[in-house]
User: Fold Translation initiation factor IF-2 from Sphingomonas lutea.
Amino acid sequence: EAITVQELANRMAERGADLVKALFKMGSPVTLTQTIDQDTAELLVTEFGHTIKRVSESDIDIDSSSDVDADDTLQPRPPVVTIMGHVDHGKTSLLDAIRGADVVAGEAGGITQHIGAYQVTLPDNSKVTFLDTPGHEAFTEMRARGANVTDIVVLVVAADDGLKPQTVEAINHTKAAGVPMIVAINKIDKPEAKAQRVREELLQHEVIVEDLGGDVQDVEVSAKAKTNLDKLLEALHLQAEILELKANPDRAAEGTVIEAKLDKGRGPLATVLIQRGTLRVGDVFVAGASSGKVRAMIDDKGRQVKEAGPSFPVEVLGLSAVPAAGDPFTVVENEGRAREVAAYRQGVIDRKRTTSAPVSLENMFASHASTTMEFPLVVKADVQGSVEAIVHALNRLSTDEIKVRVLHSGVGAITESDVTLASASGAPIIGFNVRPNAKAREVADRNKVEFRYYDVIYHLTDWAKGAMAGELGPEI
Ligand code: GDP
Assistant:
């Protein structure tokens, strides 16, 4: 895969001349229109302090002609769902209740295995996959690592408690990811449940349910009394149909590691969510920077399976080392190739540790390709009045060319959750009379998230104006 110097410069948002100069210093005199190979391009990207992010594994598969599956190879696949909501609103209870509602769980005679995800079969034989780690932290962490596995978010709101800070966070994280949402209004068995109040509170956060004229489905449920679980599953099925989720099952498998651990008896284990293709026993693969050969696969009901298709979660045995959650999982032709890809990825990981800017090629490319650019921000302040004033002032800076997008705003110290969100979206975090806590600072350090502290609003807007102008660059 070769790229011209100019094209690379565009993607990096750097001046072509500067790239030529750097290349010259590196001992490769080339002109703007000449192509350079992948390795040189990467070296250059790193040199300029950008982070390399692979859009797809095919980037390293130099032989593969095209990595996009043709339309006629695509078949419907089950949706992958993450449950989010405030603590104690019933996320875990709902996950358990839905698992119990699975029509095949009983007849299979299997024993529930907690492998990090599970799949339920509806009476019409359609399926829905649930990720077992609820909450927006895990969701956004995966996203920050480049793994977008969730198709639909179920937002759980307890009808006796209404919207709470983490509910709002979950809404904002979901919106930042552009993932559609279904609201499960839980605990309707309680006498003090007020479902309508929940709908109205959602309205204030621009989540408009169908009854109120919006397009967000909501379902009143009780995880405890197992009320309306079928309706929730139907809503998910419907949303999946709207999304037209499809994948090619007839190709080498690709997926994402959902969970991984070292088992005393069985060695390294990883739960993989297959995203396209079909994984089979005997397949050679790379998972993150480790490789292996599928020795066996076990599903969420404890059954050994011979193959796993799109949206199917399986625990894979046969890894050489423990990968990390969010790592890509790719089947390759042979073990030599697996070692090569694994070594290559290790190199990318090592280089990432030493680079500085949190910008990815993919992000830069995306923002330059669209007509209106976005300037994402996370805003935290000491009091609600300031939060509102700041968000208002920032929104007024939007122009036709670049729009301010406040991904999340709230009162209080900057938390780890704020940092993960910012990191996943390449956004700086503004602290107005507030600072990050220790954990947030640590995560920000690791992910190169920028903090900006202010105590005067117009200082903040001055900075934002300048930064937005900088984003647009001189040529646009
Ligand atoms: P999570 O923190 O969101 O995972 O919430 P949990 O699932 O742990 O539930 C918190 C508490 O709410 C537990 O005591 C549950 O038994 C209770 N709970 C969950 N769902 C319901 C429900 O539908 N009705 C009632 N009455 N209680 C529920």
Remarks:
- Residues 85, 87-93, 186-187, 189-190, 222-224 surround guanosine-5'-diphosphate (CB under 6 Å).
